[in-house]
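Support request, please re-run this one:
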Amino acid sequence: MILLIFAALLALLFLALRLVYHRYWSRGLSCTLAFCDDHAVEGELSALKEVVVNDKLLPLPAVEVDFHMDKRLYFTDGQNSSVSDQTYRRDVFALSLRQKITRTLEFSCRGRGWFQIGSAGLTARDLFLTSKYLMSQPQHTELYVLPRPVPGEKIQIPFSHIMGTVLSRRRIYDDPFEFAGLREYSRSDPMKYINWKATARAGKMLVDLHSSTLSQRVVLLLDLEGRGIQHADLLNEAAVRIACTLSEKLLYEGVELGLFSNGLDVQDGSIWKLPSVSGLGSLLALKKKFACVQAENDLPPICGLIPETPGQWEEDLLVLISRSQRQELVDSFSEKVGKERGVMIVPYQVEHDTLHAPKNVDLIWLEV
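Re-run finished. Output below.
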């Protein structure tokens, strides 16, 4: 009899605990995933912080957290993860009463891009491991993986060529806000430049000297037509790295930039463009923008994306970066350049076809 009563009490306790877990298992249970960095560089290591909290007086002996992210982010520990079209991760926690567990998961950035984790799945079991409970929690974390810089010895040739062209074609204007000194007045000087206070002190006509400013800017055209073939993907990525590295070096030289691409912006699906960028303060935002550009098939021709404005390119140097070795692209670019002179940079691997470069286009081959 006593054994039967004891067995009945155990059964009631078991049923009561199952009811308690069924009702309260998710209360106070949360999971937060957060990238440790706002941005990283292609090829570097970064980390993801995984925080699981059980804020109640009910232990959870087994809680599984599962999520997925882009396979270009690869966990270095090689545990609890599998890679197919994406990287899938599943971690197991044992949570006692009111416990918080934090883990830092290191991963390598194997490709540039803009990455998000939108949700995490939670699977919990009761004290007897007989029942399984499921729920999903939204996540809000993102990471920019910036393009890897092109080595200095490789990028120096196109950069020097571009800067040489900029300096040879520059237009110099007086900057009225930059005072550089005084000199004697000549009949060709505008009256507005006369410094009357200095004239009164010196007893002769003196005019202000102003520093000169460089008015020319560089417009980079990034062609990203075609994806899905290993050769094309590799060269398109090389084109992005070249454009990003050149942009950084030109900004350091104080050159204003315009950037256009027929690639898509992964954040909103629009055509990627930055009509005007200047100053080193824009550099990080610019690199993040490069992280978001994506190659696609059947993109519009790159030379057709530039606004048509009379006299638009008289002061701008056009630079086209494209893996394409089609003569029609070179000819189209030559027409866009018109009476000025443009630069076309073609990334390639081992061999390349012979292209005929028109007189107004300087063709630079860059092995990657």
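The chain has a mean pLDDT of 87. Residues 213 and 361 are 26 Å apart (CA to CA).
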